[in-house]
Amino acid sequence: MHVQRRRITRTMLPLGAVLLGLTACGGPGEREADASAAATAFERDLDGGDRTAMCAALAPKTRSEIEDAEKKACADAIGAQDLPAGGAVRGVDVYGRQARATLASDTLFLSQFSDGWKIVAAGCRPRPGRPYHCSVKGG
Hints:
By secondary structure, this protein is of the alpha+beta class. The protein has a single domain (26-137), classed as Nuclear Transport Factor 2, Chain: A, CATH 3.10.450. The protein is built from 5 helices and 5 strands, in the order H-H-H-H-H-E-E-E-E-E. The termini are far apart. Mean pLDDT is 84; it is low at 5-25.
């Protein structure tokens, strides 16, 4: 009986740790809400012309791509990008640590980092049968 109890304990403890870890990351509804909030904040910063905040909202590789392409600091370089005013968030799809936010006039792609959701691509237009074309994207 004690051997069987130990086996169950050895099996259940790791399983419980995994389940606890999954719930600590937030459920799908919470992750969608957080990704939506990040997309909304990015659009608010775009509308307000707050380039520093826009750069802070970008994923590190995306920020680097903009800086490398323009040979300028992000806050100066992001103004040269063809970013449309996206408007209100109409929907968010979350796939693990990735998300797509569909706005009234734009589509944003996001990734979840330790400090929250970051924009990995913006100014994205769908192309039938092909990947989106994005004005701003990371490598």
